[in-house]
Amino acid sequence: MNWETVIGLEIHAQLATRSKIFSASATAYGAEPNTQANLVDLGYPGVLPVLNADAVRMAIRFGLATGSTVARRSIFARKNYFYPDLPKGYQISQYERPVVEHGSLEIVLEDGSRKTIGITRAHLEEDAGKSLHEDFHGLSGIDLNRAGTPLLEIVSEPDMRSAKEAIAYLKKIHTLVRYLEICDGNMQEGSFRCDANVSVRPVGQKEFGTRAEIKNVNSFRFVERAINYEVDRQIELLEGGGKVKQETRLYDPDKGETRSMRSKEEANDYRYFPDPDLLPLVIDEATIEAVRTTMPELPDEKAARFVTEHGLSDYDAGVLTASRELAAYYETVVQRLGGQPKLAANWVMGDLSGALNKENLDVAQARVGAEALAGLLARIEDNTISGKIAKEVFEAMWAEGATADSIIEAKGLKQITDTSAIEQAIDEVMAQNPGQLADYRSGKDKLFGFFVGQVMKATGGKANPAQLNELLKKKLAG
Amino acid sequence: MHTQTVSELAAGLRARKFSSLDLTLHFLSRIERLGPELNAFVTVTADRALADARAADELLAQGRGGPLTGVPVAHKDIFCTDGILTTCSSKMLANFVAPYDATVVQRWRDAGTVLLGKTNMDEFAMGSSNETSFFGPVKNPWDLRRVPGGSSGGSAAAVAACLAPAATGTDTGGSIRQPAALTNLTGIKPTYGRVSRYGMIAFASSLDQAGVLARSAADAALLLEAMSGFDPRDSTSVDRPVPSYVAELGQPLKGLRVGIIREFFGEGLDPKVEKCVRDAIELLQREGAVIKDVSLPSLPLSVPTYYVVAPAECSSNLSRFDGVRFGHRCDQPKDLLDLYKRSRGEGFGAEVKRRIMTGTYVLSAGYYDAYYIKAQQCRALIAADFARAFEDVDVVLSPTSPTAAFELGAKTSDPIAMYLNDIYSIAANLAGLPGISIPCGFVAEGGKELPVGLQLVGPHFGESKLLAVSHQYQQHTDWHKRVPAGYA
User: Fold this and answer.
1) Tens-place pLDDT, residues A338-382
2) Are A380 and A408 in contact (CB under 8 A)?
3) Nearest-CB residue to A271 (from B99, B235, B364)
4) Does B33 touch chain A (CB under 8 A)?
5) Given 3.30.1330.30, 1.10.10.410, 3.40.1160.10, 1.10.3720.10, which CATH number is that of A419-477?
6) What ipTM score was computed for the predicted complex, to two decimals?
């Protein structure tokens, strides 16, 4: 039987507010345990939550960026369950009335086609603390620094049909929240997390199969692996005559498998009800318009502009806009260079990205800045150096942190464009290789490359390639 | 000295007739002598009181005192007080020293009051007789065999017995007004949102409101003014100026439209209590008030509605008492579940458990719509009834409680009978309206004279009117001036 995979994602994006969603504690990552937890975060008797307006503005930004409806009135609800790292015994979240609803996002598939993924809702909620089970000799430690950190939970429609689509969507959201500057996107620190709802059904069947929810997979690679593992597991189960159970499963990255965490029957009854400590969240038109004026150019808009204004391919535009920083870098190069977008794009996606990947650096940490790269490309443009030499110069710039001009000067890499100098080199090479010259003249055209190589060697690679070609052709012809 | 009103004491202090230290020592000695039999206090903060008094005296000596500087007060033990035991009269918090002041505590402190101690109450404010306290029941100073009402029973007994000139209370379904009625005090529960709930340990967040128990409407006005106002730490507090309740006490009774709530003069109301209330209505009429019959047909829904909403909220509010960070923790927990079960099982009393279970039930999947949602709809009906009534009248009037103080133990085995004690007071909480109870007479029971209270409820932010009507009534009566035998 042929099976179709159905995937929906729930993404938790930690909002980049300075203080927590309902208290004034700092949200910075990595502080000593329990140093960023005040009485509100600790759930002390008598304390009350007060909503952080920045978190609301960030939710509105996300809503506007995804064509969603920003609810004029949404409700905070309590999700009740006991756990030591949940100080109040309930999590303040949004349930029946989320702040953002009915949006969508377009992803580009591998074959270049586009697909729209529905965003069911995005709601504000507080994070829980952390339970630490190591180093306590049979006891558990509780760190409540994270308790009360604002999260935007972004729930997709079950619109994805493969792990690849899920990853494309996940990356798109990841790009978007960083463009919007509402989340730092750091998956290792847990500020961008994902749960995947996965089911399979026979191709052509309308109803969804029973789904499993895979919890907290913390890298793009693991999400893809976890989904693929889960799809295979479910198909195998069904083809063996079994049934998929509705359950929560945990991905084990070491073993590369998912395993059951709790079944539907064991699931908590969270007893949601509106939190009486918080008024309904009312967002008026003026607030939404104020946020709208602060919206940045979004990745899709930017990519479209790169295609129409810069003449880049869809693919190049997509790669360059995958991160706001990379796009900014590219645009700075183009601006400084005064044009030549294709040249700039090739270098940013080629040598620059290669160098960054090699050292696992962000574009912000590049050892050759956008201005410096533009300085290098300008020397290609004005024929001071060839593209090939430029690669050598770039490597030196990366290693030494010097400008292109100073390296060209110091290493004497300036291109030879003086016709007589090139002709002289050609003459010498012809004189040294009479046999090859005779062969060429008797019809062995392929030897042209040999002569180019010899002249280049003689000039230390600095001869202007176009001039060399032209002069060499003439000379060889006799 | 101890039978004087707050206004009289404050005037005496400013005129240097006596010092705050004198006054404080006097009340502390009364508490020491008379407190134990009443069981009105959980904690007496003598050292703190003396320090507060000395600080007040310094201010007074510099002529810098305000209208409450140097006046001793007591706080219900539901308000967090920095560095002082704050127990909610529960074993769960019997060891809990609050690390901060509630806004109400802070505001009274800023006004220069002296803290005598923390008063006993029904456990987590759940009760109408002060018998659910982990520290034992409070006795009614009018008859030690009887309850003082609840849940602010300790505050009521303390003020009624002149162990403190005034005290804070909280009112979720009548917990200020009913004990005020049963102990001959003036007790006001302001509009929901008028007083900050920050630092007031939550029972039912959408109903809880802090207020005052005092011996006159004028005192209640003075003290309410000092605790009211917007607090950025409480999202449900309302950003609206606080009128000078004291300055507005002179509003005349003439022309005042008083609605008599038909539904609250029916079955279950003790005829002797009714007589007192009817006499008060006559007096108001004689003084020029226009008496109107009003019907609020949804009011009989109040008690069942309340006993869905309040337990639902409390079941969630009390989840934080889990033995992990503060409060009672069981000995040697085997594992996490054992820690939860035994800490909570041991820490909470029977009535608290009953309400947590009821609340958990009504919020459960499959029952939520039938109970919680239905209760919210009833709540809206009740609020609409009041809103309609206030189109025709300025205040509505009823008894505060169907009977005078009942005997200790009389209703402890029958929760429903106990719940019906709040039958007239609960609706104001459900609608978020201000309500006040004032003394309006006495009935004879078992050879004792027991006080009776009447209740006035006004529209949102109508505290000023309620206090003025009460004050005017108190100009024509002296019920509120009576002090129980042995405490004068």
Assistant:
1) 988 999 999 999 999 999 999 888 898 999 999 999 999 988 888
2) no
3) B364
4) no
5) 1.10.10.410
6) 0.96
